[in-house]
Every structure is written in structure tokens, then in C-alpha cells.
Amino acid sequence: MGGPTAGTVDCSVGVIVPESPNPELDELRELRSSKLEKKDLPQEFCLWKRTARSSETLGCIIVDTCAVIHEPDIIEISIKNKILVVVPFPVLCELDKLHKSGKYSSHKKAQQAMHCLKKSSMSQHLIFEDSSESLNEVNGFKVAKNNNDDLILRCAFKIQVNLPADCVDSRIFFITDDCNLSLKAHAHHVKYLTAKQYLAELQKSGLSISLEPEEEPMEIDPPQDPVIPPQDM
User: Fold this and answer.
1) How many whole angstroms separate alpha carbon 61 and alpha carbon 44?
2) Residue 201's CB: how many other CB atoms inside 10 A?
3) What is the mean pLDDT of the chain?
4) How far apart are the first and last CA of the chain?
5) Do 106 and 27 touch, CB atoms closer than 8 A?
6) What does residue 230 show for φ and ψ, rounded to 5 degrees?
7) What is the pLDDT of residue 230?
8) On the CB side of 78, how many CA atoms lie within 13 Å of its CA?
9) What is the structure's pLDDT at 197?
10) Where does the record place the region Disordered (predicted)?
11) Distance between CA 53 and CA 50 in Å, rounded?
12) Which residues pair with 193 in a beta bridge?
């Protein structure tokens, strides 16, 4: 699953050119500009499990929120192909908030992404960064306080600079569809791909990107019907 790095000039990766207006990405950018409160933090993904060893994986991806929103199947496809998926803690927070208070399209896509994470939560090829890890200092990377972009990118930077000796560097990618975040990744020499580019790389490597169809996921936290008080006759 080799590919171009953030440090090379390549038309297939390079700098992500902004596409037509995307209301979901705009909503995510607005969400990132506001501080997440304690009540917004997800509580359901704090699970312990043995993670896969480097010898058991074909690569590793660190996912951004917008990539998971646009291509939620990317999680299950990667796990099926024995590719380690790392989810930064701020991504969980943003998905949780979009699911609870996002507009209809964002709500549905965040719900689908959370369903995929929940379904695969016990896999050895899925790792959730916890809140304390998200705040740990990383040499060579300075983070602006309460900046989710920086916190998410730092997770990718940390994994890339702390790779074990038996891990193949060319198979570690930060997956983001956010133009601004891709520029920050480029500045820190973090290799990145868009979700579509990543899936194309899997296909070029002879890996399958198809999944068995399944029923539409149920609401994780279904909204409660309003209680209408009885009217006097």
C-alpha cells in the first residue's frame, strides 16, 4: 500500500484542492471553532482490548472526522484487510456532538460512522486514543490549546515518529478530506490521503474494498417522543 508522501509533489496527493461547497464540512469546521464541553465527551468507546502486533498488520491509518463522515465504511474495510485503524479522541468527541446536535445529513452520517466504530470496537485492528493520550506532549509538535485540528494531527504525527522498528513507514497514512488539515499535515511531513485516494490505493494493491450489505443501523441514542400533557375536556 505504498504511495506518495506529503513531502513529494504529486498530482494524486499533494495539496487537496477545495471542492464545491460542502455543508457537512462547513458544519464540522464550525464545530471545531467552538470548545467542546465535558458533557460532549463520548462515554461508550472506552474499552480495553489487546491490539494487533505490527507483524499482524498490513499498514496503519489515522482517521479524521470528515473522512469517517464521508466514507464510514473505510473503518470496516481497513479492519477486514488487517490495516490498523487509529481514531483520535477529538474525532470521537466531534462524531458524538454531530450525532446529537448536527443537521439531518450530518446527524445521519455521524450515526453511521459511530455504528461502524461500535460494530468493530473489539477488533484488534481498531484503537481509540483516550483523553489523557490526546493531551500528552509530543516532541516536535506544538499544539494550540483547545484546537481539535492540532490534537487530531498530533495523534498522526506521534504514531509516525514513534513507529516500531518492524513497522513499514510507507504504509502509515493520515486520512483526511479537510483541505486546511491536509496543509497542516504537509507542513509537519505527515503522509496523508483523502478517503477516496486511500480506497483507490487499496484497490491498486489488490485489496478488496467491498462489504456485505447490511440493514440500516438503528439509532444509537434514539430521540424521545415529546410528552403531550392531557387537555382538559
Assistant:
1) 22
2) 21
3) 74
4) 71
5) yes
6) -65, 145
7) 62
8) 35
9) 94
10) 212-233
11) 9
12) 175
What's 42-67 look like in SS3? CCCCCCCCCCCCHHHCCEEEEECHHH
| pTM, full prediction | 0.69
**Cell 496523508 belongs to residue:** 192
Q: Could you say which residues of the chain have pLDDT below 70?
A: 1-56, 102, 134-136, 140, 145, 163-170, 213-233
All three cell numbers of 138? 509530543
CA distances for 25 relative to 60, 69, 83, 152, angstroms: 24, 9, 26, 16
All structural domains of the chain, each given as residue ranges with its CATH number in brackets, are 58-204 (3.40.50.1010)
Q: Which residue has the cell 488487517?
A: 82
User: What is Dmax (Cα atoms) for the chain?
Assistant: 78
- The two beta strands, 192-193 and 126-128, are unpaired
C-alpha cell at 81: 484487510
* Residue pLDDT, tens place only, 176-219: 999 999 999 999 889 999 999 999 999 998 888 887 765 555 55
Indicate the burial class of 205 (C-beta count within 10 angstroms; 0-12, 13-18, 19 or more).
Answer: middle
Collapsing DSSP to helix, strand or coil, 73 comes out as helix
**Placement of cell 410528552 in the chain:** 227
